[in-house]
TrEMBL record:
Family: Belongs to the YqgF HJR family.
Known function: Could be a nuclease involved in processing of the 5'-end of pre-16S rRNA.
One Pfam short name: RuvX
Taxonomic path: Bacteria, Pseudomonadati, Bacteroidota, Flavobacteriia, Flavobacteriales
Protein name: Putative pre-16S rRNA nuclease
Record organism: Hanstruepera neustonica
Superkingdom, taxonomy of origin: Bacteria
Enzyme Commission designation: 3.1.-.-
Entry GO terms, CC: cytosol
Amino acid sequence: MGRLLAIDYGKVRTGIAITDELQIIASGLTTVLTKDLISFLKDYITKENVDLFLVGEPKQMNNQPSESEILIIKFLEALEKAIPNIPIERVDERFTSKMAFQTMIDSGLSKKKRQNKALIDEISATLILQNYLNSR
C-alpha cells in the first residue's frame, strides 16, 4: 500500500502532507515554493510509493469556487501531464487555514512562530489529508 499525499496549493508556497504506508496517520511533510512543486513531487515519488494525490479545493461560503481555483486548475493539468500514473482527488479545504492557525495557538506556539506562513500551509495540508482520512 502506498502513501496518500495532500497538497495545499498556494500562489507562492504550497504545503504538503503525507500519510504513513498504512494510510492511517496524516503528517506534515514540508512546504515548497510553488514554482518548484512539480519537480519536488517527481523527485518524491522516486523515493516513496504514493497511491493518490489529494489537492485542496478552495470554495467560498456559497459553495462557489474561490479565485485561486483558476491557478489550481492549471496546476492540476500540469500535474496530470507530469505524473500521469498517480490519480488526483479534490478535497474541500474551507477553513483549513483558520483551523491551522488555531492549531498553532492551541499547541502553544509563540506569536513569532505563528507568523510562519510556510508552517500554516503545511498544517493546512495535514488538515486536508486528515479530513480525507476521516471521511473514508
